[in-house]
Amino acid sequence: MPDPADLARLSEAAAAAVDPAWLVDLLGELIAIPSLGDEETAAQERVAAELDRIGMTVDAWDIDMAALRTHPDYSAEIERSSGRGVVGAAGRGDGPRLMLNGHIDVVPVGDESQWSVPPWRPTVTSDRVYGRGACDMKGGLVSAIAAVKAVRDAGIDIAGSVSVASVIGEEDGGAGTVASLVRGHTADAAVVVEPTNRTVAVSQAGALGFRITVPGSPAHGALRTEGVSAVEKFQVVFDALRELEAGKNAAFNDDRFAAYELPLALSIGTVRAGEWASTVPDTLVCEGRYGVAPGESPNEARRDFETAVAVAAAGDPWLASHPPVVEWWGGQFHPAETPSDAAIVDAVREAHAAVTGQRPPVVGVPYGSDLRHLVNLGGIPSVLYGPGDPRVAHREDEFVPIEELNVVARSLARLIVGFCGGSR
Q1: Mean pLDDT in the chain?
Q2: Is the pTM of the predicted complex or chain greater than 0.85?
Q3: Is position 105 annotated as part of the catalytic site?
């Protein structure tokens, strides 16, 4: 058994070896490489090169996307023609195995005129790094790499093993983490370095992507009463979905999600209707995400959703004979949960407390993540823990506080030594 006092000294040395300037520089380099869905390879190659440079053994491979699409846990909104997997590993392998998982893909920047800083050019202030992916989640990924670098710079020989999995496709279904697990990359515990606002998340709600097609009947806009507007009929469906959302959230009682007004949100993200401004639209197609509670069966959630749409349609004379069509498409993020008494939960909290003086709370989060693949598919006890506030993700002027990058890197460095063991 390793001497606890020796591990404490080594953990402190590892945390002290984190290089804040190096961390910010690498994050800036990755922000400057746009890594939208199906465009992640250049950024993945940069990560692979850095993992190799700090002395990790790197497995970088071309993902067989055709084969991956047949996997039961695969889902995606983007049809990828190719993909690159990257996993770096370090350690003797004589003890516990820890995985640090982070995704390299980012969401589109939207209207760039709404940004006060260039989204693809890192902007560093005295306390923040701005740019697309700074928070979600290149900041977390770089903190993980910086933690491994610090352990190695401190001259610590890791007894077990630590791996850094840089994955693609998280934003639309988690293809990269599925590919890594299928390839055999596993661990005894994992930390997904998503932004968690200084908390440790052990539970995540699910999110099921849906598409609804609402039919109407066309007519000249000047004679709109002689047609049936698909937009107006969509309102019938929309009201039913809002009622479904309200009832589901009223019945959900989990204090770990207390920070969120709607932990099981049902959100419609796109709406397309009609082909001509002066024609009554004969079709409306909407797409969105449907929140699923931890422990809830995704299949039952789908049935509840479909029933709500069908009941609403049955009460409308037009929709009763022209029912909307529900499809399940894109990212199918199932809920997932790690027991709060799992060793990794307390290990992360203790590492963070050693750096900050405060134990972070254990929480749940309302959004999907690769936690579900690690837990549900890989059977790996996992938590979410990383720098930044998810409320600034997917928005203009996305940023991550520099201090949080450093805190997480130092905490992860301590975690690596404390969980995996080590010596000099």
Answers
A1: 97
A2: yes
A3: yes
